[in-house]
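Need tokens for this chain, all 368 residues.
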Amino acid sequence: MAADEPMVIQRNVIGALTVLCLSLAVPVTAHPVPFTFIDVRLQPGAIDLTLVAHIFDVAHDLGIQPQEQLLQPGPLAARGNDVIQLFRDRLHFTADDQPLGRGEWSAPEPIPERQSIRLRARFALPPSPGRVELAGVMFPYDPQHRTFLNFYEGDALTQAIVDKDRNRFEYFTGTRQGVLEVLRRFIPSGVHHILIGPDHLLFLVGLLLLGGSIRQLLLVVTAFTAAHSITLSLAALGMLMPPASAIEPAIALSVVYVGADNLLVREGRDTRAWIAFAFGLIHGFGFANVLRDMDLPARALGWTLFGFNLGVEIGQLGVVAIVASALAWVRLRNPVVGTRLAFVGSIIVILAGTFWFVERVFYSGGAV
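Here are the structure tokens for all 368 residues:
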């Protein structure tokens, strides 16, 4: 029996600690379902909306206790106007940037099996809108809360999620006006990106430093555009997407290569179009990293890619026209100065590319 005494004491200690922990435990009410669900149906001249929200969230924001009151028709009807006002203040529609007003809302209905309530609303819609935007955070008190959206247009369904980090969603309709809205949005985005992307611009400038005929330069730009269009499309469609930590240093190396090739080139075949195509494939993945951060309309993805690529091409052609014309003018006035400019410019291209490579590998988490 003496041998069993330590085990008995150990069991008694564990039991005492268990009782103590249970006595100190504080009941915690967990958020059961931190989601809201919204169905949006585009009709001729109207938007029909169905919203389902959990009683936990509604009760929290309206100060209703116990929350189960919202599942009873009488108490829910008594607070119906407050519930409607809650969502009217937080949910906003625009069509082509024009507000659609506060809408006509029905009385909330209890859904006991889902511990939720349902509301319906209708918003007047202008004829043939190109873009419809929904904005709002349903329950700001909960940073984890998400709103799941279903946009219906005929038989087409587009799904999205709205939360505290992305508090709006744009839907481009499947009409001619919708296509025009996509192009209006993404052509300027493409122009903007190429003009603010120093690595892409310096790669192009490096290809232009040695000059050449208009045909040669157009061939270089076309090869670059064709290549980055291929990889941009593959990445946007989710078919192939290397990590940015590898792509960004590789883009920097492409800049270094162009500058070095300018210094080593001798009389012979012009291979700049091949260089532009080969490295353009890498630059396309860089464009895709930017495009992925934008709100891409899944339904109009083809027009989105076309618009963005067209914008990039417009920006490139503008840069090429200015830089090539300036270099040609210098060579025409003084060929010696033109040659020196190409040499110095190539050195600058190499130094800039080397700086970006070191920065992206050792200071930005890159991996090569």
